[in-house]
Structures are given as structure tokens and as C-alpha cells.
Amino acid sequence: MDETREEFFNACSEMYSKKEIELFETAIDFIKQKFGSEKRISGEEQVVNNIRIGLVLVKSKLTSEIVCAGLLYGLDERLAPKEIQDNFGKGISDLVFGQNQLRVLREKNRNAEAEIVRKILLTSLYAPRVIFVKLASKLTSLLTLGALPELEQKRITKEVFEIYAPLANRFGLEYIKRNLEDEAFKIINPKKFREISEFLKASKEERESFIKSFISEVEVLLKNKVKILKIKGRDKHIYSIFKKITDRGVPLEKHKDHFAIRIIAENVEDCYKILGVLHENYFPVEGTLKDYINLYTPL
């Protein structure tokens, strides 16, 4: 547990205030009292799993209330709301006990189609933040899914692809979405996961060098034309690459779409200005241009 706890607080150090970190310390001490040495089916201590949930939420850059609710995950099944509220306040208590509401909704609609379930979860909860905690919990569960029977693994990974990863995407939780898909993919197709992973490791330096160079090039093109808040580059995740080579029928070694850059502007108008500048200087690949600016609807 010490190693997981240390990783958690290291991740917190640059994002949260001293008061918020003290709140997290209180929450971890609290779950140690309530869960003790209780273990999950995988053999991992429940406390360790909860700290992992908190870590996922920290890496997703979410508020301290949401992180704390993640650390307290599962206590709604053994404590009264008043005990959580007295120790952590009503906001955190509502997020913790919202997990029970989420479980009831999911169970009532167990046989519904995935799209319907997603809509129900999006519209029925008083606070979408409850879903954030659930998504983090689902990700940590995938890490130890091998302890479950194969049939149960298939059911859970199917839900991840059809319900939980799309929800993470809908809320803009990129870290959770990418890792949900990759961890589920690793379970259902370990051979292909390993193949793509090793390919990416072998070409890592080349990709990083290209991304850095391309960002510099784009910054020069946009200078004095559009105000840019931030430009960042990232590798495409493993499942995303698998989907593209499958959909396009292109062998992995010939597939070039392994990375992306993201340009963040102040408003929609500036986004289209940026797109115009890019079109003036680069040719879009035929059939691949998508207007995510127009499709995006703020929550």
C-alpha cells in the first residue's frame, strides 16, 4: 500500500493545495479504519484499490471533492450518509452515496441496449460527477479482471467498450477513456495489444521528435494570426491504433496515424481560424477530415 499511497500523493503535489492534500490524508486514514485489511477477489487490499481510484481521478485533473469521493468508494454500502457527511461534508457525501443510485439504475436497465443505458445514466443522475467516480472505479477493476471467470471478463469488457468508454469520451475524460479502452483491449486480445505496444516502444523517439518539430512549425504558422492558449502533442493509444488499422485494412508497419496534436483556443471562432490556416498549409487526408468543432456540444 505504501507504494500506491506515495504515487498518489506525488501526483497530487502540483495540483492541489495543502488543505486539499490534508483532506485526502484524512480520507485514506478513514478508509483504513473502515476496510481494515479487507481484500478484493483479486487478493488486492480494498484500501489500495480505493487509492488507485483516487489516483485515476487526480490524473484526470478533477476537483478535490471528486478525488475524495473516489477514495471513499464503496462506503455507501456499509455506512449511513450522516457519517460521511459529518466527516467530509454534504458535497462529498452526495457523491459517495450517488454510487448507490448509479448501481440501481444500471441494474434496472441491465438488458437495455448500450446507447439507451448511456442516455439513462446521463439524464437520471442529479450530478454527472457521480459517473466520474464510477468510471475511475471501472478502470481500476480492469487491472485485476483476470481474477474473474472468463465469461464475466467478457461481459465487463463489453460494457467498457459500449457504455463506459463512450461516457468518458462524452465528458472529455481523455485519460480515463484511453486507459479503459487499452486495458479492456489487453484482456480480449493480448497478442495484438502486445504487438502494437512493442511497435510503439520501438518508434517512440522518432515520434516524439516529429511531434516536437511539428508543434514548432504550427506555432510559427499561427503566430500573429490567432491567439493560442496551448498546443500539446500525444501518442494515439493502442486500441485507437488497432481500430484504425482494422477499419482501414492497413498493416501496422505501414500505418502512420500514431500521434496527434491538440490546439486549444479561446473560442469557436478562433478554432475555425486555426483550421483555415492549417488548410492553407497542409492537405487533409481524403475521407478523414471530421469537424469536431461543430459536433461538440458543451455539457
Concise account of the structure shown:
This protein is mainly alpha-helical and 299 residues long. The protein contains 15 helices and two strands. It has a two-stranded antiparallel ribbon.
> Which term fits the overall shape?
globular
Q: Indicate the percent of residues in helices.
A: 55-70%
**So, the CATH homologous superfamily of the largest domain?**
Hypothetical protein af1432
Ranges where pLDDT stays below 50 over 5 or more residues in a row are none
Series of secondary-structure elements, N-terminal to C-terminal: HHHHHHHHHHHHEHEHH
Number of strands: 2
CATH class of the largest domain: Mainly Alpha
Sketch the major β-sheet. 2 strands, antiparallel
Mean pLDDT: 88
Distance between the termini: 36 Å
Descriptive notes:
The chain is mainly alpha-helical. The chain folds into 2 domains: 2-188, Hypothetical protein af1432 (Orthogonal Bundle), CATH 1.10.3210; 203-295, no CATH class. 67% of the residues lie in helices and 5% in strands. It is built from 15 helices and 2 strands. It has helices spanning 2-12, 18-35, 46-59, 64-71, 81-88, 90-108, 114-124, 129-142, 150-170, 174-188, 190-202, 204-222, 238-248, 268-281, 292-295; strands spanning 228-235, 259-265. A two-stranded antiparallel sheet has the order 1-2. The two termini are 36 Å apart. The model has no long low-confidence stretch (mean pLDDT 88).
Q: What is the element layout, followed by pairings?
A:
Elements: H1 2-12, H2 18-35, H3 46-59, H4 64-71, H5 81-88, H6 90-108, H7 114-124, H8 129-142, H9 150-170, H10 174-188, H11 190-202, H12 204-222, E1 228-235, H13 238-248, E2 259-265, H14 268-281, H15 292-295
Helix pairs in contact: 1-3, 2-3, 2-4, 3-4, 3-8, 4-6, 4-8, 5-6, 6-8, 7-9, 8-9, 8-10, 9-10, 10-11, 11-13
